[in-house]
Amino acid sequence: MIFYIALQVNKRLKTFYVLFDIIAYMIIKNKAASFFAIVIILLTGYILYLAISTPVTVVIQAGHEGRTTGNTGTESRLYHEDRWNTYVANEVAKQLRRWHIKVKRVPADVSFIRATIAVSIHFDGAINPCASGASIGYPNDNSYSFAQRWKKLYANYFPYKWQQDNFTKNLRDYYAYKRIRAEKFLVLELGEITCDKQAKWLRPRLKKIARLIAYSIATELGKNVKKPVL
Ligand SMILES: [Zn+2]
User: Where are the domains of the chain?
Assistant: First the structure.
């Protein structure tokens, strides 16, 4: 944590070098200016501290969104995972905002954030089509009951198979767990995009699935909201 904050501060140091040069000049010039310089330093530090430490209620991440290299997501002949992730993540955020829940929508690469709940949206791919299905990954026991509630909700709707929780290495060691520090964090694989049967079922239902995710988050936060009609 301390190391991470130090890193964040370090990234911003370049901006400060210029500021320090101006301040050093001002201190030599006159005392009133040096007083204002100190005020500016303290204010900047405070803003930086707030940016790093203020938690948000919900973080919704679209998996692979914005990536052009590295893990850019799964694709089939017809569909790209990151496009589906982005669409679903946007719909989840929209629905949560309608219920007056504060949401931060983030792409794949994020800087440090703290949240009450974080959900990352994905669709799986498999070398042997239809070998996979839906699954959930989470980093801690704290997220376990939320994960099981989501599974129960989605299993009533999604008619294909489920993998065990944290079943892939990606889900176990998900990099965003380190960047997004959430009390509860779920990485959702909503189905297998490389399985034609599942993809055909999923595609016209992406909006409904998004609403179900939003409902699951809202109820986890203790909000009394209407369950979407599926
Ligand atoms: Zn993915």
Answer: 2-52, 55-220
10 CA to middle of ligand 1, Å? Answer: 31
pLDDT digits (tens, 9 = 90+) for 126-156: 999 999 999 999 998 899 999 999 999 999 9
CB atoms within 5 A of ion ligand 1 belong to 63, 73, 122
Backbone angles phi, psi at 225, to 5 degrees: -120, 160
Question: What residues of the chain score a pLDDT lower than 70?
Answer: 1-20, 22-28, 50-53
CB burial class (10 A; 0-12, 13-18, 19+) of residue 59?
Answer: buried
Q: How far apart are CA 31 and CA 27, in angstroms?
A: 6
* Phi (first) and psi of residue 4, to 5 degrees: -65, -45
Q: What is the DSSP string of 200-224?
A: HHHGGGHHHHHHHHHHHHHHHTT--
In the block, tokens 């016209």 appear at 204
Instruction: Domain 55-220: give its CATH superfamily.
Output: Zn-dependent exopeptidases (3.40.630.40)
Calculate how far, in angstroms, residue 140's C-alpha sits from the geometric centre of ligand 1: 20
Distance, CA 222 to ligand 1 centroid (Å)? 29
The rounded distance, in Å, linking the Cα atoms of 148 and 92 is: 19
Q: What is the mean pLDDT of the chain?
A: 88
